[in-house]
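User: Is it possible to get a 3D structure for a protein together with its bound compound? The compound here is pyridoxal-5'-phosphate. I've pasted both below.
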Amino acid sequence: MADAPGSDDPRNWKPATQAVRGGLMRSQFGEISEAIFLTSGYAYDSAEQAEARMAGKEPGFVYSRYGSPTAEMLQQRLCLIEGAEACRVTGSGMGAISSAILAPLKAGDRVVAATALFGSCRWILANQMPKFGIETCFVDGADMDAWAREIGKGCQLVLIESPANPLLDGVDIAAVAKLCKQAGALLVVDNVFATPVLQRPLDLGADVVAYSATKHMDGQGRVLAGAILTHEKLMTDVYDPWLRHIGPACSPFNAWVVLKGLETMQLRVEAQSRIAATLADLVADHPAVRAVRYPHRKDHPHYEIHKRQMKSGGTLMAISLKGGQDAAFRFLNGLRIADICNNLGDTKTLACHPSTTTHRALSDAEQAAMGLDRSWVRVSVGLEDVEDLAADFSGALNAL
Ligand SMILES: *Cc1c(COP(=O)(O)O)cnc(C)c1O
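Assistant: Yes, that's possible. Here is the predicted structure of the complex:
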């Protein structure tokens, strides 16, 4: 249990305090805002010290591909927020997720993954892994029998995303984690849509959590970054050598931007989720709309799962228009405040057409397998006033 208020162990702080003060390392100048250490290399006091640092026998920085003080502050802050032992940050979300799934595997291994995944994650599993002799079986993320059957056949790694791109599908993280434990497989969760504010996969039994920090962590659409969080042993044995030699390092500047973004993440995510829930209810009643997918609306097919493992419905929704792609395009073109953009988690409301953008590499049949068709629009809800957004959405829908 938490210590008395005033505890100076940051692990006992509440998440909002951890997000503002966690990991803070001040230089001799006593700066209040975290410093950006824009340097590639580090000077050693002696040749002996260089030898000891490189051998890992003395703590300290050696090269910014291995780590930098600014990235280290971000890593410590993320560890606290996520409740993880170890964190490494990368130059993009895909730098983190590709490393999270590639580093532990070898030829002959087998992966089981949910069908509904971020486009690039699916591409790596379907198109790159087979070149290295690693096969992936895709299952419907909501079908527990399919998970039990495929994981039971033997596998080394499982990758899931919940809520998943683009229709906010839910996967029961605790149930899949249990199957993974029995099979001795690593469970990797891409937790980008939920954020650590709303869902903590490590508490549900996951082994590794990966993020695109580009999304809600920066939260203001400025930089790309990513993060891998797991326990100390897996990090030092498996991920550290991979990250150092493959090189998806996060620039100190980008690490700093994300560090500052984290300070307001909880406020932003909670406020954006409230606005998203209101907008989802508003558009669901419109005659031009065929269906709405929002994780905490009762008509979401995976409502029960999302309700159990996510604190609120999150900042994203998907809307299916009755007139198919034509209506979806006219809706996007009719928005006056929200932008057409495939990014998400920004303070600005962003909308896109997954079939022809983020998921265009998938055939119609592959899209259909994840429930996607050309009628769907995905919306990432920002921080604008809910009345202005409601008027914008209603205007674009009324024009259909
Ligand atoms: C954006 C995103 C990624 C990739 O992150 P980048 O920072 O763009 O490399 C991976 N997974 C999900 C769910 C995402 O939304």
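The chain is about 40% helix and 15% strand. Residues 11-260 form a domain with the Aspartate Aminotransferase; domain 2 fold (CATH 3.40.640.10).
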